Every structure is written in C-alpha cells, then in structure tokens.
Amino acid sequence: MSWEAVIGLEIHVQLATDSKIFSGASTAYGAAPNAQACNVDLGLPGVLPVLNERAVEMAVRFGLAIGAQINRHSIFDRKNYFYADLPKGYQISQFETPIVGEGSITITPATGKPRTVGITRAHLEEDAGKSIHDLFPGQTAVDLNRTGTPLLEVVSEPDMRTAQEASAYFRQMHTLVRYIGICDGNLAEGSMRCDANVSVRPLGQEAFGERTEIKNINSFRFVEQAIEHEIARQIDVLESGGRIERETRLYDPDRDETRSMRSKELSNDYRYFPDPDLMPLTISDDFIERIRLTLPELPEARCARYVEELGLSVGDANAISSDIERAVYFDAAVTAQASAKQCANWIMGELSAYQKKHDVSLAECPVTPILLAQLIARIDDGTLSSKTAKTLFDALWEAGADADVDELIKTLNLAQMSDDGALTEIIDDLIAANPKQFDELRGGKDKMLGFFVGQVMKATQGKANPQQVNEIIRAKL
Amino acid sequence: MIEFSSLRDMSAGLANRDFSSVELTQDHLTRIQTADSDINSFVTVNPELALAQAARADQRRAAGDQQPTVGLPFAHKDIFCTDGVLTTAGSKMLSKFIAPYDATVVAKMAEAGMVSIGKTNMDEFAMGSSNETSFFGPVSNPWDFDCVPGGSSGGSAAAVAAGLVAGATGTDTGGSIRQPAALCGITGLKPTYGRISRYGMIAFASSLDQAGPMARDAEDAALMLSVMAGFDPKDSTSAQRDDSWLAELVVNGIPELDRPLTIGLPEEYFRAGEHMGALEAAKAELQRLGHVFKSLSLPHTESAIPVYYVLASAEASTNLSRYDGVRYGHRCDNPQSLQDLYERSREEGFGQEVKRRILTGTYTLSVGYFDAYYVKAQKIRRLIAQDFDKAFAEVDLVLAPTAPTPAFKKNQLTDDPVAMYQQDLFTVPTSLAGLPAMSIPCGFSQGLPMGMQLIAPAFREDLPLMLAAQFQRLTDWHKRRPGEAS
Amino acid sequence: MSQEISDDAIDVAHLAGLARLALDNSARSQVGEDLQSIMAMIDAMQAIDTEGVEPLSHPLDASARLRADVVTESPDPEHFQQNAPSTGDHYYLVPRVVE
C-alpha cells in the first residue's frame, strides 16, 4: 500500500523584545541562573502581569506579513498545569481568541513546486523556564531566566505532505520572522522551536489518520529527520497491523528516533479561563495601520522585483531577497547607482567572504553600500580592472566607511593605464624583446596573444586595460 | 494617651508636639503587648521596624513636613507583602515567608510617613467569614471573646475595635472588610474595584479582591483611603482616573454633604427581620437629616452567593497553584518525586477551607463543567451588575444591612461551610459588581454591634463617606467601646 | 433553562490529582460530602435565565493597558532565594524529574 503523510507544525517564535512579556526583567540570553527572574517571573505571592506593548506590535507585524486578520479583541487565558519550571502553576496564553487569525505563507521545497501553507492562527504567550536534569545527582535544577519570554505560537494547517515540505516551511518562517524583525532566529539558543503533528493515511483516503505530536525540535535538519522517522515508524506500526496512539513524542537526534513522553500525559485538563489579572486586549485600526507602514517589502515581493525590474537571475534574486540584511544592503547600493548584476556578484562574492573571515554582520561591514557602489562605478568606467578592484576592496575594508574611493585609487596607484602612447611603447619594447613569439602570433597562433597581454599586465602591475592592450597588439599585426 | 483616639486626633497631637511618633508608637506597642493576648489580632508585631519608622517620621516633622499622615501608627493585614517582614496570609504555607518586596499599598503608606506596627491575623488566604481558618489561631471579638470578629480581615477589625490601633488595612473579596467591620463595630470601606492597587496583595480572587481602610470612623477611613488609592502601572486592573478629590481628603477631611440624598432600600436585603432593629433606627435618623428613601428591587441578589462561590473559587484554585513548594513556602519532608513534593507540600500547607475552595474551583473549571458553571456565573454576574446600574439611575446610594447577624460564637459554623457562606449574603453582590461599599456602626443587637452598608456607584466613594461623616457627627455608635454598657 | 449538573458523583480523587493535593481516603470522603453540598448550593443559580446575556469577566469592563518594552528589573537571585526550600548554585532544586 502507498501511504501519504499529513503534517502540521506549531512553531514557537521567541519575540525579540528587550523585556519580558509581562514583567520588566531582561530577555537577554545566557545570564547566570535565575539572575533574570524577577518577582513577577518567579510567581511570588501578590505579583501581577502587565503586557509588553512591543510584543503586541510584533504579533501584529507577523499577522500583517502573512496576510492574516488581526483580531481587534483578544483574550489572555490561563492554561493550568503543574511543572517545576512553570512558576505560577499556569501559563498565560491565548486560547479561544488569539491575536492573529488565519493567514498563509508560500514555501519552495528543495524538490517540488512552490505551495501555499495555511496558517490557522498565531497567539501570544509566555515561555516557561528550564529544567536541567544532569547538574545535581538525583535532582532537577530549575532556572527561571527564560520564564516570561514572549512567544508567538504559529499554528499551521495540516497542509504539508512530506518532511521536506515541513522543513521548507520552517525555513521560510525563519526567513520571515527575521525579515520583519520580530525574532533573532537563533536556533541554537532556542529562539525558534517547533512541534510537529504527524499522521499517515493510505494514499487517496480523505480522512486523517490518528496523529502524534513530536515536541521541541530546534533545527532545520532535525525537523526533517524527526518527521521522516516518525512517518516511517507509523507506517511500520500500521503495516504490521498495529494502531497509532495519540501521544506526545520526543525526538532524540543522537539515536535518530522518537520516543513516547509519559510525563506529559498526566494532566490533559488545562482548565483554560480568562486571566482575571489582565483585561482583554483591544487593538485599534490606527495601531495596525501604524505598524503596516513600518513593514518591510516581504521576501516574495522583493524577489520578483529583483528579477523583473533589475534583471537579476532567479537564483541571485532569491539569494539576496531571502536575507533582510543582504536585501537592505543591496537596495542601498543599487539606489547609489551601482549596476544590479555587479552588485549582486560583489555581495555574494567578495563581501560575503570578507564577512565570514572577519565574522561581522553586513550592517557592520566597513565597506558600506555607497562605497561599494562607487567601486563598481569605477569598474564600469574602466578606471579599475577586476584585479585592482579587489585590491581597492581590500583597502576599503581597512580604511572604513569614511574612505574616499578616488583618493585611494590615486594613493594606491590603481587606475588602469589608458594612455595609448604609453602602452604602445611598452608593447613595442616587448615585441622587440620577443621576436620569435611575435612571429608565431603573426602566423596565426592566437595563444600568443595571451602571452603578450600577460607580459603587458606584468609590466604595468595589472593597471593596463586588457581590452585596450588587445586592440593595440592586433593593430600591430 | 492614645487608647481609642482617632488618627485625626493623633495627627493633631503630633502636629502640636504633644507627643512624638516614637512615643506614640511605643504606646501602641505596649498596649498590644498587654491586650492582644486575649484577642490574637496580630500575627507579627515589629517593634524595631516600627520604632525606626517612627523616628524617621519625627525627623520629617522636625524638618517641617506637615503631611497629616506622618508618624501615624497603624497595622497591615498580613496579606500585603512587606519587604523583609514575615507575610503569611494566615497560612501554614507561608508561615515562614519573608516577603522580598513591598506591595504598592505598603510603599504608599510608608511614603506618607505612616508607621506600620505589625501584621494582623486573617482567615487563611482571606477565605473565611470568621477568622477561624487562620493557621495562627482564631481571633476573638473584643465585644465578646467567645465570638468571632468576622472575616477575613478579622485581625484588623478586632485590633481597631480593641483600641490597639486606630486604623488598619483590610482586603475585601466578598465582604472581608465590611462584615468584620460590622461584627466589631468599626468603620470599613471597600472601594471600587481598581481604586487601590492589588500589586503585592496576596491574591484570593483577582477579579474581586480590593484593599480598603478599616478605622474607627469615616474621617479616619477617608484619611487612609487617600493614601492607599491611586493608579499603579504595576497593576493592569488599576483604574486611571483624576483623583484630586481623594488627595484633598488628607488635608481638608470629608466635605459636608450639601444636599439631601435619595437612598435606595433594596427589598431583597430587608427580609430577615430579627436583627434589623438597629438599622431601622438608623434609617429614621437619616430621614430626620432630610434624606429620602425609595424602595427598589435588586432581583438577582439571591444568585450572588452561588455566582460568587463559582467565580471566586475558580480564580482562587489557579491563583493558589503557585504554592507548590518549589521556590518558596512550605515543602514537605523527603519528597520522593516532584509529584510527591507537590501533593504533600500542598496538602500539608493548606487548611481545610482553602482546599475545599481549590477543589470547588478545579471542578467548575474542568472540562465539561466550564460552561455550565463558570460561564453561567459570569452571565449572572452581568445581570447583578445591571441590577445596580438600574438602581443608580434612580437613587444616589443604596442602604442595606452589612451582615445578616451580629457576631456569632466561635465554632458555631465551622462544620457547615454552606451556612458560613451565607454570612456574605449582603456583601457579595457589590463585590461582583465592583462597586464601593462602606460599613458603619449603627447600633446593637443582643449586646453586639451591628453595621449598615452604604453602597455607591463606581468611583463614588465620596457619597458614602460624606453620608457616613454626617451620620457620625450626630450619633456615637462608632465611639462605643467594648466593655462599656451598650 | 435549568440543568442539574451536580447529580453526578464528584470524582474527588481526580480533582485532587489535578490540584496536586494528597488526600487520604477519609479526607477524600469528607471533602466529597462538602463539595456535594457546596455544588447543591451553587446549582440554585442554574434556574436564572441568561439567554442572550454576555458573560462579565471583569467589573471594570475595560481594555488591557500596555507597558513600554523597557528593562526595569535587575533581580538578585540571592535575595529571592532566601525563601527557597532547596537551592544549589542559584538553581531551584526539586527531586529529579525523569523524562
């Protein structure tokens, strides 16, 4: 029998606020244990939550970016359960009325066609702390620094059919949230975590099979592996006559397997009810419009514009538009009159290599978009050869944003020799010194043209324009 | 020197340099030491902290600070977190809990120069109407030591009634300021929900809890209210309003009532006649002052108790989940697992009544019952609030008894929770509607004080305060002391 | 519309489990009786007609107030852990949770 998988993802996006969703403690990663858990986060007697405006803005930003309805009225509920790293014994979340309603996102899997994945909803909630089981023998250590970090939980429709699609969706979401500046996207620090709902059904069957939930996957690779594995496990169970139990499973990347989490089954009656410490959240049209104005051009639209208006190849357009920093840098350089194609080459070539070597972000690069545009302009007008342009780039990197491109070209003597007379003189000398080679060239051995051009370049330390040299030598024949 | 004098009188004495705040505070401490052993109204008395605060207050006065509140001793209900001080909420769960921060109310009173003498006894987590659920033992009613003082702010009420302090803070969820005020013959005000910050006040039922002053008369209650009230950015449910009239209360006292009021008498509150003689006399007195009475109906009054017990228990059941023995509070010995730690710590740390309410709330919130109980109760809550809206379209204030009976004997109702819950019959509807209501002494029944309740529209605490002040200028029920012939 | 809900026996053991309260058998039966009578008292409200009435979750019928995204707290774990039953290296400690 042929099987088809049905996959939906719940992605927890950690919002990049400075302070927590309901308290004034910092959300910075990596502090000493419990040094960022204030009285509100600790759930001390008498403390009260006050909602962070920025978290609301970010949720709205996300809603607008996926074309979703923003609910003008949403409610914070208490989700009641006990766990060591859940200080209040309940998590403040949104149950029946989330802030963001239905929307969608387009994904392009590595293989297969682009497709639209429906997003059911996205809601705001607070994160729990961390339980560490291997620090003290026989005991679990609880660090509540992460408690109260704002999360946007994005719930997809069960629209994906393969692990590759699920992974492409996770990647696309990763691009989007960084693009609109609501999440740093740092997977290693847990800034994006995902739970996958997976079921299988015989190909052609309408009804969904029983599903399992795989918890807490935090890398692109693991999403694919974990789902792949779970699909195989379910098919195995069904083909050997078994039944799929609805349950929560944990993916173990070391063993490449998922296993049942019994501890979560204890409490499944969360007794949701509106948190009486918080009033309903009302969002005005004004608030939404203000945020809409600050929304950047989104990756899909940007990519299309690069292809249609700037003539980039689809590959280049994709590579640049999928990264907001890159896209912003590119746009700035193009605005400063750099040719789009050259600009794309430099950004993905030299600039990217230097960035890696010096471990800096694009925003921190000493070669600013304006400097790059000036450099490209000097290539276009023939002042720089591709070789001297690289020398100049290196010099600009050292000199920093205040550098003057033309000044540096002069100081470093990088301009191409475009004086016909001077070049002719050099060429005449070379012909005189290498009569045998010149004869061969004359005799039709075109390879010898390269020899002469190379010698001219050597003699001019790369400053001659090879095109021009070519022309002069040809004229001599 | 100070026994039974009012905050206003003490303030005059301090301004006059008749005595210092240190002397006044020392006097209070001595009186508590001798008289509280029979009453048990304090869980904690803090001589050192109080005297240090008093010394600072004396310095402020010496430096020319003329705020009337500077140097006035008072007590906090032990439900307000007080930085560095034991804060128990009357529970074994918190019997060793040293609060690491100040409640907004605590900070405000300290800023106003008031001297916190100690923390008063209360029903465990404010759940009770008799102060018998406290881990620190029952409180005796100063009018009759065999009787309860009411609850949950029973310690505050008894301390004021016994003349141990002239004022104390209280909290009211379903009547916890007003009912003990009535049973102890003092003046208590539950302000409008949102008037006083709940930050740092240990939560019982978040949509109902409201702090308020308990004092000997309306003037002192107003003085305390003006210090306690005000917008607090740390409380999302705190009301943002122009409070200038409240600030003026401190300086000028309660303004004179400049017109006769139309006072509503809800028929549903006057059906139990046995103890209502005092209230009838008070009505006659108010009529002589020119006020006009009008009968009206608040038809959903009877449902208030069921609705209250659904909503308050539901909120409480989750508000109390944080007491899990992990970060603070009681932890059982030798927990075998996290599960065992939770179950035994909570079983040992909470008393009977608290557990009853947690389980009631867990039940009404659970799958399958939520709509039938919680949502249903919220709908009736709206009907109850609408009853009051209609009433206040016709009258300025509503007058009602505060409690159905005077103070009852200890242990009389402890085995019958449902009968105990009926104590809140007349106070719960206003709590559900979030309205301000005040209880003032209006006479006696069977030798024990009775209270009458003045209920006002939202944010109109000025009305009951003005009426109470007028009434108290012409009567002396609020000046009666336990032990004197009544 | 009147519903009789509390006719079903209340499963005290289940509730105590959800609320993490260890109740022995005798406590459980006492609490069971108490809950039955409390729920009977509460069920009186089922007689009220609430057709078309919106639930009121808050007396203040207002909207959420938002705070600016500013770090205002710099917590000191030592200070807060003075009340903690068991800590190590500034972690809160509980019996090992097996997952």
Commentary on this structure:
The complex is a heterotrimer of chains A (477), B (486) and C (99). Chain A has helices at 53-65, 163-179, 220-239, 285-294, 299-308, 314-321, 324-335, 340-358, 369-380, 386-399, 405-411, 420-433, 435-442, 447-459, 466-476, and strands at 3-14, 51-52, 73-74, 77-80, 90-93, 103-107, 115-126, 130-136, 139-143, 150-156, 192-202, 212-217, 248-252, 257-260, 273-274, 281-282. Chain A is an alpha+beta fold. An 8-stranded mixed β-sheet of chain A has the order 6-7-10-1-11-12-13-14. In chain A, strands 5-4-15 form a 3-stranded antiparallel β-sheet, with no helix packed on it. Chain A has a two-stranded antiparallel ribbon with strand order 3-16. In chain A, a hairpin with a 7-residue loop joins strand 6 and strand 7 (115-126). Chain A is elongated, with a radius of gyration of 30 Å. With 486 residues, chain B is α/β, with parallel strands linked by helices. Chain B has a domain at 7-259 and 464-479: Amidase signature (AS) enzymes. In chain B, helix 2 (21-35) runs antiparallel to helix 3 (47-62), helix 7 (218-228) packs antiparallel against helix 16 and helix 10 (304-319) crosses helix 13. Chain B has 16 helices and 11 strands. Chain B is globular. The N and C termini of chain C lie far apart (47 Å). With 99 residues, chain C is an alpha+beta fold. In chain C, strands 2-3 form a two-stranded antiparallel sheet. In chain C, a hairpin with a 2-residue loop joins strand 2 (87-88) and strand 3. Helix content of chain C is 29%, strand content 9%. Chain C has a domain at 12-46. Chain C is flat. At the B-C interface, helix 10, helix 11, helix 12, helix 13 and helix 14 of B face helix 1, helix 2 and strand 3 of C.
Mean pLDDT of chain C: 89
Low-confidence stretches of chain A: none
State the major sheet of chain C. 2 strands, antiparallel
| Tally of contiguous helical segments of chain A | 15
Strand content of chain C: 5-15%
Largest sheet: number of strands, sense, barrel closure of chain A: 8 strands, mixed
Number of distinct helices of chain C: 3
* Oligomeric organization of the protein chains: heterotrimer
- Based on CA atoms alone, the radius of gyration of chain C comes out at 23 Å
- End-to-end Cα distance of chain C, whole Å, is 47 Å
